[in-house]
Amino acid sequence: MGLKLVRETEEAVERIRTKMKQWGITATFLAAQLGVSRQYAWQIIHNRTFLSVERALEIENTVDLIIAQQKHVKT
Predict the structure, then answer these.
(1) CA dihedral 14, 18, 24, 27 (to 10 degrees)
(2) What is the structure's pLDDT at 75?
(3) pLDDT of residue 2
(4) CB–CB of 40/49 below 8 Å?
(5) C-beta neighbour count of 16 within 10 angstroms
(6) Distance between CA 44 and CA 57 in Å, rounded?
């Protein structure tokens, strides 16, 4: 069961990284939105720190909200 959770977290981080790249979201901007340091945001994006599945999904939700705001501005 532990490996399943690790895999789910890694998949969420991969989705975060992909969305950020597609939309030009920087680690600095994500860090500001999350209220964390830029270094911590970089560690999240590059899967260099432990995240629970729940935290990874929260961060993905934040990225989705950033994208939704950018879409709204573009229309």
Answers:
(1) 10
(2) 57
(3) 85
(4) yes
(5) 24
(6) 12
What's the rounded Cα separation, in Å, for the pair 75 and 60? Answer: 23
Q: Are 45 and 19 in contact (CB under 8 A)?
A: no
Listed as own residue / partner, the contacts of 48-54 with beta carbons closer than 8 Å and 24 or more positions apart are 51/9, 51/12, 51/13, 52/5, 52/9, 53/5, 53/8, 53/9, 53/12
b (16+ CB within 10 A) / e for 20-47: beeeebebeebbebeeeeeeebbbbbee
Task: Enter the pTM of the model.
Answer: 0.88
Residue numbers in the chain where pLDDT is lower than 50: none
The amino acid present at 17, given as its one-letter code, is: R
User: How many CA atoms are closer than 13 Å to the CA of 49, on its beta-carbon side?
Assistant: 10
